[in-house]
Amino acid sequence: QTVVTQEPSLTVSPGGTVTLTCASSTGPVTTGYFPNWFQQKPGQAPRSLIFATSSKHSWTPARFSGSVLGGKAALTLSDVQPEDEAEYYCLLYFGASQVVFGGGTKLTVL
Amino acid sequence: QVQLVESGGGVVQSGGSLRLSCSASGFSFSGYGMHWVRQAPGKGLEWVASIRFDGSKNYYTDSVKGRFAISRDNLKDTLYLQMNSLRPEDTAVYYCANGWEQRFDNWGQGTPVTVSS
């Protein structure tokens, strides 16, 4: 059973920078796991922000960026805005029959 | 714009069945893989099943194999999830999403499923 681990919670000040990470129990995360990142606000459906490690959608704000750093997938938010307060989920693709979401990081902007 | 609208959720007794639908518009449905993802109350996201753009291959998480079946009708631009032998632990909001195998680009608003024991 593959487990994908994220920080349970993080707090950042408005205008600051924060990095969320996504680790795999199988070993270092690589771009071959096609990391995805999703944002979910209370009562709403998830929204895709990043796919294939660092690719953005047309709707992804420029202040969001994805990477692989130190064996983990990472989502960095720069110039954090109050509206960025949300739950963030990563996803790792281990194969068509093994797609695993992380447990989520609750980001508080304070 | 892309729209995905799920329906078919409800309350069902343990051991019962439900069929979820996801009606798609605003994109070329027959050219995209599709996924089902669920979220139990107060919990995180869990991938459930995926289907290739032409319906030629289906993939399932272990806990639903043999009980759930994903399918699609490319003429009706609709995705389905047939759920049989439902268990209380299947209680969740079920979302459909579009995208190639490693992508989950656009999501519907979800349909809630409650399995009572």
Question: What does it look like?
Answer:
The complex is a heterodimer of chains A (110) and B (117). Chain A is mainly beta and 110 residues long. Chain A is built from no helices and eleven strands. Chain A has strands at residues 4-6, 9-12, 18-24, 36-40, 47-51, 55-56, 64-69, 72-77, 86-93, 99-101, 105-109. In chain A, strands 2, 4, 5, 6, 9, 10 and 11 form a seven-stranded mixed sheet that branches. A four-stranded antiparallel sheet of chain A has the order 1-3-8-7, with no helix packed on it. Chain B is mostly beta strands. In chain B, β4 and β5 form a beta hairpin. Chain B is globular. Chain A binds chain B through residues 34, 36, 38, 40, 45-48, 51-52, 57, 89, 91, 93, 96-97, 99-104, and chain B through 35, 37, 44-47, 50, 57, 59-61, 95, 97, 99, 101-110.
What attributes does this structure have?
heterodimer; A: 110 residues; mainly beta; seven-stranded mixed beta sheet; four-stranded antiparallel beta sheet; 49% strand; B: 117 residues; 0% helix; globular
- Beta-sheet strand percentage of chain B? over 45%
- Unreliable segments of 5+ consecutive residues of chain A: none
Largest sheet of chain A: 7 strands, mixed
Biggest interface = A-B, 22 and 24 residues
Architecture blueprint of SSEs:
The complex is a heterodimer of chains A (110) and B (117).
Chain A: E1 4-6, E2 9-12, E3 18-24, E4 36-40, E5 47-51, E6 55-56, E7 64-69, E8 72-77, E9 86-93, E10 99-101, E11 105-109
Parallel strand pairs in A: 2-11
Antiparallel strand pairs in A: 1-3, 3-8, 4-5, 4-9, 5-6, 7-8, 9-10, 9-11
Chain B: E1 3-7, E2 10-13, E3 18-25, E4 34-39, E5 45-51, E6 58-60, E7 68-73, E8 78-83, E9 92-98, E10 106-107, E11 111-116
Parallel strand pairs in B: 2-11
Antiparallel strand pairs in B: 1-3, 3-8, 4-5, 4-9, 5-6, 7-8, 9-10, 9-11
